[in-house]
Amino acid sequence: MRKIALFGGSFDPIHKGHVEIAKIAISKLNLDEVIFIPSGISPHKAGLTASNDDRYNMVRLALEGEERLSVSDFEIKKETKCYSFETVTEFKKMYPSCELYFIIGDDQYEKFTTWYKWEELLGLCRFAVFTRDGGEIKPPFMEIKIPPIKISSTEIREKIKNGEDVGSEVSEKVLAYIKEKGLYKKSYGEIIKKLKETLKESRFNHTLGVADTAVALAKHYGADTDKAYLAGLLHDSAKNLSDDELFALCDKYNIPLSEDDRKAPPIIHSYVGAFLAKEEYGIKDSEILDAIYNHSTGCENMSLLSKIIFVADMTEPGRRDFPGLSEIRKLMYEDLDKALVASMDANISYTKMKGAFLHPGTLKARDFILAKGKN
Ligand code: FE
Ligand code: FE
Fold it and tell me: What are phi and psi of 80, to 5 degrees?
C-alpha cells in the first residue's frame, strides 16, 4: 500500500526546515510521497505576507527536483476557509487505496481538539507530529523527532523587511523569487515618502540620485542592489539637521565623537544618519549602516558597499561640477578603488581650499587603499 503524507502550512515563505521535516518524515514513516498543501490565507492578515499564488510558487520552486515531494493547490484554490477535515476527505477520495498521513507541528497538536470535526478526522488518516524537543505525544498520534531547526518563516519575513540576508534559510530558487517579486520588503515608498518630508528638495533629489547610482555600481561590481539602494536613500537622512542639533543627538544617544569629529561638524551627519536609519527607518543590516556611517570620511578596510556609496555620493547625476568629477565618473566603472581615491582627493582639495579642518579619517582611508594597491 502506498503511503502518502499531507503537510499543510502557510509556508510564508517555505524554508529549508520545512523540506527537512518532510524528508525526515519520509524516512521515519517509510512514506512514498509528501504533499505540501499551502493554506489559503486571508489577504487581510496583519503584517507583510505573500499572496496565495506566491506562496504556492515558492513551494513549487523549493521542491523542484525532489522526487518524493510535491505541492497541491487544493486549499489555495478554495475561496473560503478550508478545514483540514475537507482537505483530508478530498485526498481520501483522490487516493482511495493509499494509507494517508497528516503531518503537523507540536503547536497544532496542542490545539488539536479545537479542530473542526477532529474526532472524525482521526478516523480518516494517521497523524504524525514533529517535535523539536521530544514533547509528550500520545497515541493515536505518532511522533517524529526532528533535530532542532532554528529557522522560522516569521523570522525570515522580519529579516527581509530589515534588509538582512536569508540565503542560508531558503533555497536559492526561493530566494531569487522573493527578490524578483520584492516579497516581504518594507516598501521603498514608505522610506522615500518620509525622506521627502524631512529633506530639502535639492537634498532629496540628491538622495534619489545616489540611490540609483549605487544600484548601478552594485550591479557592475556584484554587490547586493537592495542594500545599495537603501544605503543610498538613507545616507543623508540626517543632513537636514543643524550642527547644534547633530551634537545634541550625539549626546542624547551616546553616539561617540572623537576630538577630530568635533572639529569637523559637517561629517557628523553620517554618524547620525546611520543612527536614524536604524531607529527611524528600521534598517538593521550592519553593512548598510556602516556604509552610511562611513560615507563622509571613509575608513580603513572599507566594504564594497561602503565604497559604492562613497563614490555614488560624489558622482550622482545631480552633483554640481567640481574639479576631478569627470575623471571620477570615467573611473568608477573601471576601477572602483581608483575612483574612490580620486573622490577622496577631491574632498581633500576642497577642504583645503576652504581652509576648513581636514578630518584625518579621510587621509587614513585613502592611505589604506593606496597601500593595499601596492601589494
Ligand atoms: Fe552626506
Ligand atoms: Fe550625500
Answer: -110, 170
3-state secondary structure of 34: strand
Specify the pLDDT at position 181: 83
| Pairwise CA distance, residues 25 & 129, whole Å | 10
Q: Give the model's pLDDT for residue 41.
A: 67
Length of the chain: 375
Q: For residue 39, what is its C-alpha cell?
A: 493554506
pLDDT of residue 187: 72
First to last CA, the chain: 68
Residues 6+ apart with CB under 8 A from 110: none
Query: What pLDDT, on the 0 to 100 scale, is given for residue 349?
Result: 96
CA distances in angstroms from 205 to 208, 211, 307, 315, 319, listed in the order given: 5, 10, 21, 13, 10
Predicted pLDDT at 47: 55
Give the angle subtended at the CA of 66 by the CAs of 19 and 62, to the nearest 5°: 50
Calpha distance 261→258 (Å, rounded)? 5
Helix, strand or coil, per DSSP, at residue 334: coil
Residue 233 Cα to ligand 2 midpoint, Å, equals 9
pLDDT digits (tens, 9 = 90+) for 105-119: 888 898 999 999 999
Taking the C-alpha atoms of residue 296 and residue 272, their distance in angstroms, rounded to an integer, is 12
Residue 356 three-state SS: coil
235 C-alpha vs ligand 2 centroid, how far in Å?
6
* pLDDT in the model for residue 44: 45
**Residue 117 Cα to ligand 1 middle (Å):** 62
pLDDT given at position 29: 95
Q: Say whether pTM exceeds 0.70.
A: no
Q: Where are the beta strands (DSSP E) in 210-272?
A: none
What's the CA-to-centroid distance between 309 and ligand 1, angstroms?
10
| Main-chain dihedrals φ then ψ at residue 4, nearest 5 degrees | -125, 135
Show the low-confidence residues of the chain (pLDDT under 50): 43-44, 46
Q: How many CA atoms lie within 13 A of 295 on its CB side?
A: 33
